[in-house]
Amino acid sequence: MFEERRARREANHAFENGEGVTRYSMQQKMIAIGDDYWIDNDAGEHVYKVNGKALRARRTYHIEDPRGHRVATVQSRPMRIKDSMAIEDADGHRLAVVKKALVSPVRDRWRITQEDGDELTVEGNVLDHEYTIERDGYKIAEVSKKWFRVRDTYGVDIGPGADHTTVLAAAVAIDSMAHPGD
Fold it and tell me: Which residue windows are coiled coil (predicted)?
């Protein structure tokens, strides 16, 4: 148990030092569906475009590369007891489902169930964009506003070995579900 705790602490230490971590900046979803925004890398280059689709029965966001090619779709799942959103790849194959797992007065808890991978847990203050995404207790991504002075912008740091598209799409889904009226 001690060795496992030490391994987890060392893996999480990479985020503090930026070792192998890729940082993206995203806009807080203060815009309506139908508006678009960019996800930029730490050099300020546009990496993905989030294209909100208006006038649909379901909340839908297409994530595209800078050339306009779709890499993922995030879409609400109607007729569900719990609010959830599915993440699909460019060919329409489901990659993951994001849903709020449990209501807690202290922290939000969310689950990202991957079709071909481990279940990821999301813990922290989702409303304030201060949370982590973990796999088996190891941090694979961190979402935070602490590095940004620009209003309505937050960062997504993704560690080595994590699927960047799935993590960024999950951040879009969580933001959409946590701020439904924005």
Answer: none
Query: Residue 71: helix, strand or coil by DSSP?
Result: strand
Domains and CATH numbers, the chain: 2-178 (2.40.160.200)
Q: Are 13 and 21 in contact (CB under 8 A)?
A: no
φ, ψ of residue 16 to 5 degrees: the values are -70, -35
Q: For the segment 64-116, what is each residue's pLDDT rounded down to a tens digit?
A: 999 999 999 999 877 665 689 999 999 999 999 999 876 655 566 789 999 98
Give CA torsion, residues 40, 75, 123, 41, to 10 deg.
-10
Determine the number of helices (DSSP H) and then strands (DSSP E) in the chain.
2, 12
Supply 43's token pair.
Answer: 């050099």
CB 170 within 8 A of CB 87: yes
Instruction: List, in order, residues 6 or more apart from 117 with CB less than 8 Å away.
Output: 96, 163
Under DSSP, is residue 10 helix (H, G, I), strand (E, B) or coil? helix
Burial of 28 (0-12, 13-18, 19+ CB in 10 A): middle
Question: What pTM was estimated for this model as a whole?
Answer: 0.85
| d(C-alpha 90, C-alpha 84), whole Å | 20
